[in-house]
Amino acid sequence: MGWRASTHSDKSTTTDLFEGPTPRHSLLSGRYKQSFAYLTLRTRMPGIMQQIIMRLLSDLPDLVNKYGEEVRKDVKQIVDAVERLKMELNRDRQFLLFHGAEPDKVEWNAFITEMPRPKKSFFRACWLHAECYLYRRIFSFFENSRHLQKYDCFDHLKKEDLMLSEVAMSALAKATRGLAKSFDAFSKLLRINLWGNHFEMQIGAFKFTEEDSKDDINVLVKVADIDRILLVDDTTLIWNCLVLASKSSGNRIVDFICDNGGFEFFTDMLLLEYMVDNNLATQVRLHVKAIPWYISDVTRADIEWTLDFLTGHRDECLSALGKKWTHLMNTQKIVIAPTSYFWTGPQPYFVMVESDIELYRMLTTSKLAIFKGDLNYRKLLGDFIWDSTEEFITCLRGFRPTNICALRTVKCEVVCGLSEGLADSLLKNDHNWMISGNYGVIQYTDSLKCSCALPGPDSSEKNTRMLGMVVPQSERSTLITNK
Ligand SMILES: O=P(O)(O)OC[C@H]1O[C@](O)(CO)[C@@H](O)[C@@H]1O
Question: Which InterPro entries does the protein's record reference (predicted)?
């Protein structure tokens, strides 16, 4: 979402950078000058930091009204700190330890201390580490201020994104009321959710024909599919996992590891509402970010604001939706999981079991964990250039607290699970296919402990039908379920 690239001047003092793209079987890193990591660190991040400064300065009169003249000192200190961070990035300085009131500083400092010295600077570190560190440093400036400890410098962008999406939200709200429990509806909601980041732009530009009803979910799927290609589709496996689980008694929790707020969160909620309404889960746990993160990631405060915004909306359907979702939250059908700083740490998910055993244990109590978006995908795959045909399960490196699903539009060079030759043919047609966000994957793997695999060869078709399960069409999906 949001920030435009800046025209920041390139006065790097970095030396050992490589001219080419990121080599196969390497961690993403700003060391490779033809990588998106390099572009982000060199151009996008300084631009983002400059916009934070501009935002803060334009908010100053309001802040003075709210906190008094004293807040000017806070603002000046934060602006200076962001400027210093820009300079550190530009000069590829070593990462500094945290010394303030950051609740997660022990974990961050341990991580930084353990980094090998040659990889402890912005352009030499793994991109994931450098980027997370930048966002963590930025919020620490606010956290350690006198008055602005809770200030979310991205708040306005998330709110604007939602407010600008009224047409799409209203159409989606109408089209998704009273959907029957069916694989078809589930699959469409999953796809709408996948393309959530871009849907508003799509629907705004879409020319409805006379026959098209804006209130019909099929039209919305058509809109969402324009120019977008699903490279892996494990929807049947996800559906079967949920349907099979629904045959057992007791709690069936689904963990949803959120990505962005704004319109994307709206589409998340449509999917999750459908799941609890149709007994595909007895409870959904939302995992949100503890601090403002990667510009548009959703926090608890964003969710509260979103529900209030919808509830008070003049569009009756949106207002009813806001009330219903608030009710789902009040009755614990959808809950926000306890805050975990692991989600805003630098670590890939395969270290969660050592690094945050409580969180890992929590995930083991659910039937399915859905990881949304590009950053979650990078953390699932360890920010590593796998062979594009490598199996999803291999790339998770043992991270299998429960059945896992990734819903992700491809925005950087990390990908796996593609069929042989697909990556090459995509590259031939579109050099930017890995950063355009025009392609997506819906990937799934079941956990070792789980009995959610599809029926084996000896299971009768009758059994499958009785359970309401769907037999996957693709050979690939069958292969996965036979594991
Ligand atoms: O909101 P998403 O889908 O996680 O995307 C965030 C991603 O986009 C980028 O800005 C570009 O890849 C990365 O920094 C990050 O991985």
Answer: ARMT-1-like_metal-bd_sf, ARMT1, ARMT1-like_metal-bd
Which of residues 59 and 473 earns the better pLDDT score?
A: 59
Q: Which amino acid residue places its CA nearest to atom 11 of ligand 1? A: 411
CA of 375 to the centre of ligand 1 (A): 5
Q: pLDDT for 259-299, tens place per residue?
A: 999 999 999 999 999 999 999 999 999 999 999 999 999 99
Residue count of the chain: 483
Q: Does the pTM exceed 0.80?
A: yes
**Predicted complex ipTM:** 0.96
Ligand 1 touching residue 412 (CB < 6 A): yes
Q: Among 157, 411, 439, 441, which is best to mutate for testing ligand 1, by the most ligand atoms less than 8 A from CB?
A: 411
Specify the higher pLDDT residue, 235 or 13: 235
- In this predicted model, what pLDDT tens digit does every residue of 364-394 receive, in sequence order? 999 999 999 999 999 999 999 999 999 999 9
Question: Which of 3, 374, 376 to mutate for ligand 1's pocket (most ligand atoms within 8 Å of CB)?
Answer: 374
Question: Could you give the CA distance from residue 138 to residue 82 in angstroms, rounded to a whole number?
Answer: 7
- The domain made up of 26-151 has a fold known as Transcription Elongation Factor S-II; Chain A (1.20.930)
How crowded is residue 204: how many other Cβ atoms within 10 Å of its Cβ? Answer: 12
The alpha carbon of 117 and the centre of ligand 1 are apart by a number of angstroms equal to 26
Domain boundaries, given as residue ranges, for the chain: 26-151, 155-445
Give the Cα separation of 285 and 224 in Å (integer). 26
- What is the average pLDDT score of the chain? 88
Taking CA atoms only, the protein residue closest to ligand 1 atom 16 is 375
What confidence tens digit (pLDDT) does each residue in 143-185 have? 999 999 999 999 999 999 899 888 888 988 998 998 999 999 9
